[in-house]
Amino acid sequence: MQKVSSKGGTPVRLLNTVGADPVMSPDGKFIAIAKGWGRTTREDYRGPANFDIWIYDIKNDKYNKVTDFEGNDFSLRWGADNSLYFISPKSGDYNIYKLKIGSDGNAAGEPVQITNFTDDGVRYFNISQDGQTLVMERKTDIYLQNLSGGTPQKVSVEIGADYRFDPFEHKTYSNDLDEYAVSPNGKYTAFVVRGEVFVKENDKEKSRAVNLTNYPYRDQNAAWLSDSTIIFVSDRAGQKELYLVKSADENESNIFKSLKHETVRLTNTPEDESFPVVSPDGKKLAYEIGSGKLVVVDVSPEGDFNNEVVLLDGWDAPGNVRWSPDSKWLAYSLSDLNYNSEIYIHAADNSQHPVNVSMHPRTDYMAVWSPDGKKLGFVSERNNRDADIWFVWLTKEDWEKTQQDWEEADEDSGKKKDKKKKGDDSSNVEPIKIDFDNIYQRLTQVTSLPGDESYPAISKDGETFYFVGQTEKGRDLFSIKWDGKDISTLTSGGTNPSSVRMDPNAENLYYSKRGSLNRYNLKSSKSESLPFSAKMKIIFAEEYNQKFEEGWRAINQRFYDPDFHGKDWSALKEKYKPWCLSASTKKDFQDMFNLMLGEVNASHMGMRDANDRSDTQKERTGLLGVEVEPLNKGVKITHIVPRSPAGKEKSKLNVGDVILKVDGEEIADDMNYYSLLTNKVGDKVLLEVETNGEIREVVIRPARTLKDELYDEWVEERQELVEKYSNGRLGYLHIEGMSMPSFERFERELTARGLGKEGIVVDVRYNGGGWTTDYLMTILNYKQHAYTIPRGATNNLAKNYKNFRQYYPLGERLPFAAWTKPSIALCNQNSYSNAEIFSHAYKTLGIGTLVGYPTFGAVISTGAQGLIDGSYVRLPGRGWYVLATDENMENGPAVPDIIVEEAPDSRAKGNDEQLKRAVDELLKQIDSK
To answer: Does the N terminus or the C terminus of the chain have fewer Cβ atoms within 10 A?
Structure first.
């Protein structure tokens, strides 16, 4: 928290702690702050990360905690007689409370409830300058209340409607496509932009696109039933249903050329229908119902459905459903309850059970059939967790062929290639033969490149695989023979292609590139762009309605608790939808939607909106890595962040230096010094600096961020404290996040910080989560079972062998290094998500003692649902429970064995009470053995 003169100037640090809502008492003696973190939109949150109120006694440099309710106390305002007003949910709803603060900065009595709302609480309030009247925001109204007595009175506000922005916009898109599908004859492509289905010719010289749906709802998942008919998904009826669009002109059946189109609804059920996939012969349709049902129907050219067959009806939706070339089989990926995704082949008539053809504990996905019906390709992470291209041989005969057999087969194939018999019908597809017995054993790895491969496609003859792989400049399109030979890049320069698909004639590879449509011709070996011009009219009020409905439905269908933590989700919709739709900006819409989400009292939720239409400047202040205090002329450096621009040898600054000028401009006392660094990130900046009375010039390049440098400084301070507290006996490791970079740093630092130490302190305070807890458990929970002694380590093996009991070739024998000495772990209320899973596991598995403060209580696996305008809503879809206690980790924090509350100004004074307690405890445990 900073302070700055009301006349302007450079801000300077006000308090040696972090917090929110700082307000100074009228007599200037105290500063009230709210300390905690998280979303105050969660009215029902009760947990360690809640906001409590602290009073800073300016004269005595002392902090006093004056509220300890487990919910959020926030939005602080001083009234008369040193009374502090704030919002709290102590009554169940957010109401305003009053707390008398004594002359010593402590609470003088208990908080007194001022408002008594019971259905909807107060979101914001303020106090009049004379301290007599409250003004507050509740629902969509403003209220006044006299503090000397009385009840809240709603203020009648009548303001004529006015548009801040245009209510609609005509827009033409030349990129930003979300998906595409090529017609069976290869002449057209259907694609989706901002919830509208378009069609265009596959011609690099023509960009005209025809809007086939032109509706203010979300249309998507386009699939060609024939060259003149498209099936798609729309939520225009309140849920996702299947629709068909075709020409309505009896004289022009071409869907692209026709000026009239007819849309026909194909399904009408209470559940969502989605992801239609048409069989190659155009006679069958596979699609999903709800979140885990896969069905196949016979479909007529007019879109009539018959003979529905249910293939799957479970909790997980099949991924990347693909028809076999003979329209007899389906391939898809499906996860089990261990969240392992496997590849299955399923008879389209359900005449036999689905067969797992990948059979591995690592993830397998993106199945694709070879057009010749010999192979089923897919992506697998089974080899060192790299995503590689693999395939399964569908017949034992092909699997058993030697390399020489294949070479001779290639020679015969070349001789027969041009000898097509009269009467041959290329549309007749030979039935695919599949030998299912031990099929999972007939796998071949195609790629083994550095990085991940994805989006496999297979040539017409089944000989060549195409995929997206990593290059020095990014990701590009590759080709490779099925046996791993003859690899080559088809695109270059890091084009980052995605959604790669072979067209039905196996002549072109289509792909999207940053929202544009492209194709690679396999005969000419050339890429070309297929431009489009997609025109639409965006009516923003209707789009708000669509966003709300779509976001609400996504949570309704996928929130991990079907009881919504005891809330009536449908009632919340009725309550909040009118408020959301009355918003005049996207920001207001988002804030109101997030208030609705807050009612469910769950973590990992929130709507994140696309760019607002307000046109604001995009500015960024360059950072030197110094903390300063203003002088009459210039600013004095009080602190330098190590390894920041100010800490580098060529641009080194010192504590005590005075910066007088920036690029020749003097820093006056009423000037904000930071304003002189606006938009100078990475540029050379000339500073005039006074050092011990001498003037010198320093050339420096301001940084964009100091996040890493500030983090490293904090960690190094902890390392020094552990060295001091333990007298050099213990090492210290902090885990920044539960991510692979943090894990790799942990592995590296485990050797560096643990070398020669008797134990290690593992710290996950302020860790925002991720997924690597089990990797860490592998290291910390390893039990040594043997020890080794090489020749030369001792001259008397029989006598001295027990001296080597602590040695084992861990790095040689384990996938990760292991820590076999004692450890202790630290967590706090800012340990979140996977950092909490780590804390629960460390404690319940008995690895060591957990010290600190209870964690946030925010553990749900989350995903996201993209909305029509590019915004998205987060979807917490999987709950986590502690095996040892059966406790839900959501709103169930990990509670340390030893609880220590940290003082607000601990770091400023060079202390860390939690760290000190952890060091003392671990040393006691070591010394007691």
So the answer is: C
Rounded to whole angstroms, how far apart are CA atoms 726 and 336? 47
Structure tokens at 875: 């979807």
Round to whole Å and give the CA distance between 861 and 856: 15
Helix, strand, coil in percent for the chain, rounding step 5: 20, 35, 45
List, for the chain, all residue ranges whose pLDDT scores fall below the cut of 50: 421-426
Six-digit token string for 201? 């010719």
User: How many other β-carbons are positioned within 10 Å of the β-carbon of residue 818?
Assistant: 18
According to the model, what pLDDT value does residue 609 have? 82
Rounded to whole angstroms, how far apart are CA atoms 778 and 816?
A: 8
What whole-number distance in Å separates Cα of residue 814 and Cα of residue 748? 15
Q: What is the pLDDT of residues 162-181, one digit of tens each?
A: 777 888 889 999 999 999 99
Query: Quick one: what percent of the chain has pLDDT higher than 90?
Result: 87
CA atoms within 13 A on the CB side of 894: 36
Order of strands, edge to edge, in the sheet holding 153-154?
Answer: 122-127, 133-138, 141-146, 153-154
99: left (phi over 0), alpha (psi -120 to 50) or beta: beta
Half-sphere exposure of 365 (CA within 13 A, CB side): 18
The predicted pLDDT at position 571 comes to 97
How much is the pTM?
A: 0.92
CB neighbour list of residue 886: distance below 8 Å, 6 or more residues apart: none
Percentage with pLDDT > 70 across the chain: 98
Query: Tell me, what's the pLDDT at 584?
Result: 84
Please name which of 622, 652, 658 lies closest in space to residue 640, comparing C-alpha atoms.
652
- What's the confidence (pLDDT) of residue 423? 44
Given strand 464-471, what is the order of strands in its sheet?
A: 454-458, 464-471, 474-481, 488-489
DSSP tag of 101: B
Distance of CA 203 to the CA centre of its chain: 37
Phi and psi dihedrals of 657, rounded to 5? -60, 150
What confidence score (pLDDT) does residue 419 get? 55
CA distance 556 to 564: 9
Closest CA to 617 of 673, 685, 679: 679
- According to the model, what pLDDT value does residue 424 have? 46
* Residue 425: per-residue pLDDT: 46
DSSP symbols for 245-280: EEE-BTTB--TTT-S-EEEEE----SS-EEEEEE-T
Evaluate whether 41 touches 123 at the Cβ level (below 8 Å): no
Using an 8 Å Cβ cutoff, are 233 and 221 in contact?
Answer: yes
Sorted by sequence, the CB contacts under 8 Å of residue 560 that are 6+ apart come out as 860, 861, 876, 877, 878, 879, 890
